[in-house]
Specification:
Blueprint: E1 25-27, E2 34-36, H1 37-42, H2 58-65, E3 72-74, H3 92-103, E4 109-116, E5 119-126, H4 137-153, E6 157-163, H5 171-190, E7 195-203, H6 205-208, E8 217-220, H7 231-238, H8 249-254, E9 260-261, H9 264-278
Parallel strand pairs: 5-6, 6-7, 7-8, 8-9
Antiparallel strand pairs: 1-2, 3-4, 4-5
């Protein structure tokens, strides 16, 4: 009896591929290890091999930071439109529609009231998948309304932030949101209610220059890019050599801009502790 047998293969171009479900695993962007998607999901989108932080969706963040079925969304029907008749490589209207289909969101932030370990608070979560979570009129309006609702209900505000900055397709209308949101959080401060910012990768541009810098407590995830202009622009402007870790959360902690860096798996517990203090 033969112990070995030479297998035969179908080498034709039309040979059927193995029926492997899509999205079963991914290759880590940093360490190149293969990770089962289910393990990545259980680990809060952090590589178990090298601790690389993947971007989380607003829905994933919401589940992470709130009690089950406690979230009551606000202003879900607000939508951006092309007020400036912006002409680009792709029309603004088409970009908005494409991003709505991709993310199942109306714009780059979800806002509402929720609870964590039984404590009620106002929460806004930005989703980088929607046009880089750029701040247009709708993002600014929803965050402003969130602050106003928190003042009325005497609740703290938690913002989970990721953004590429202002939305260029809305021009000065986008830049106005910096002043509008900053004024709203000044009123929150006057009401002696706290703003808790959680900065994630990346947090840049006009968002950093407004409500991302105004938190009474500012937390950040490890190795997050946090800054206003990009390192290349700053280097060209100042003609100075920048530190290697420039604009990282670690650099900003060292220089007093943020209060604490918290690993993603500990953020829920940390937020619960802070809300308990203020409660």
């Amino acid at each position: 009896m033969a112990f070995f047998r030479t297998p035969t293969y179908n080498t034709s171009p039309t040979a059927a591929k193995s029926d492997i479900p899509a999205g079963l695993w991914i290759k880590c962007k940093q360490c190149q290890e293969i990770i089962y998607q289910s393990i990545l999901d259980e680990n809060l989108q952090v590589c178990p091999h090298c601790n690389y932080y993947y971007t989380m969706t607003a829905a994933q963040r919401l589940k992470m930071f709130t009690d089950k079925d406690s979230f009551q969304e606000m202003d879900a029907d607000l939508r951006s439109y092309d007020a400036l008749d912006f002409a680009g490589t792709k029309g603004y209207v088409q970009k908005l529609q494409k991003n709505r289909e991709k993310t199942k969101m109306e714009d780059a932030v979800i806002t509402g009231m929720a609870s964590l370990d039984g404590i009620r608070f106002a929460i806004g979560i930005m989703d980088f998948r929607f046009m880089g979570a750029s701040m247009g009129s709708v993002v600014g309006e929803k965050i402003t309304r969130l602050a106003e609702a928190a003042i009325q209900q005497k609740k703290p505000v938690v913002l989970v932030i990721a953004s590429g900055g202002a939305r260029m397709q809305e021009g000065a209308l986008s830049l106005m949101q910096m002043a509008k949101t900053s004024a709203a959080f000044m009123r929150l401060d006057d009401a002696k209610l706290p703003l808790i910012d959680i900065l994630t990768n990346p947090t840049t541009g006009g968002v950093t220059a407004s409500f991302a810098s105004l938190g009474d407590i500012i937390l950040a995830e490890p190795h997050a890019l946090i800054g206003f202009a990009g390192p290349r622009v700053i280097k060209q402007t100042t003609q100075a050599e920048l530190p290697k870790d420039f604009q990282s959360s670690e650099f900003l902690l060292k220089h007093g801009f943020i209060d604490r860096i918290v690993e993603r798996k500990k953020l829920r517990e940390e937020l619960s502790l802070i809300l308990n203090y203020f409660n």
